[in-house]
Design goal:
By secondary structure, the chain is mostly helical. Helix content is about 65%, strand content about 5%. The protein has a two-stranded antiparallel ribbon. A two-stranded antiparallel ribbon has the order 2-3. Helix 2 runs antiparallel to helix 3. The radius of gyration is 49 Å and the shape is elongated.
Length: about 180
């Protein structure tokens, strides 16, 4: 049973049918996001244009009216009227409002882009500072320089005590043995 599971798992592992590379998925995803962003912006702009057209059409309607009062059988009613301002003048006012909103939207968009650039610059500076701190070598303490022509004093040989002295004499001085050509073991 174990062999069968191992065979199935190895076949699945080695099967490359329908394989999608991660780089391909990243590329397709990026293109999809960019396309969706452009498409949504186009939709937003066209909706804004259509709503502006609707506003212009409603503003172009002449809503002026006039009702005359009536009199009869001992009763009377007052008349009523409304005169809308000239259509061309109200359309000019509406266009001014639309232009003002467009400029405000452009200003907001420019401010958002500036904020994004500032944020990216701050993040880059922060990352550079971190890298600089990591690369900074530790400062080594300078070694003291010898003063003038003074040479360091040689170390004095330590005198050996009783039994150590006798052992050393039996073995002989290694330098003397080398001078005589004897082999030192």
């Amino acid at each position: 049973m174990n062999v069968l599971k191992t065979n199935v798992l190895s076949q699945l592992w080695n099967d490359e049918t329908g394989l999608v590379l991660s780089s391909e998925m990243v590329l397709v995803g990026t293109i999809g996001v960019i396309g969706a962003t452009v498409g949504l912006k186009a939709i937003a702009e066209s909706v804004n244009r259509e709503l502006t057209d609707v506003a212009m059409a409603v503003r172009s309607l002449d809503q002026s009216y006039s009702l005359e009062g009536t009199t009869g059988c001992g009763a009377s009613t007052a008349g009523s009227s409304f005169r809308q301002q000239d259509v061309s003048k109200s359309l000019d006012e509406l266009c001014a409002v639309v232009d003002k909103e467009k400029k405000a939207a452009e200003k907001r968009e420019a401010q958002m882009l500036k904020d994004l650039q500032d944020r990216k610059a701050a993040e880059k500076k922060h990352d550079d500072d971190k890298r600089h701190e990591q690369k900074k070598p530790e400062m080594k303490k300078p070694e003291p320089k010898p003063e003038g022509d003074k040479k360091p004093e040689p170390k004095k040989p330590v005198e050996k005590k009783g039994s150590e002295k006798k052992d050393a004499e039996k073995k002989g001085d290694p330098k003397k043995k080398q001078a005589k050509g004897e082999v030192i073991l």
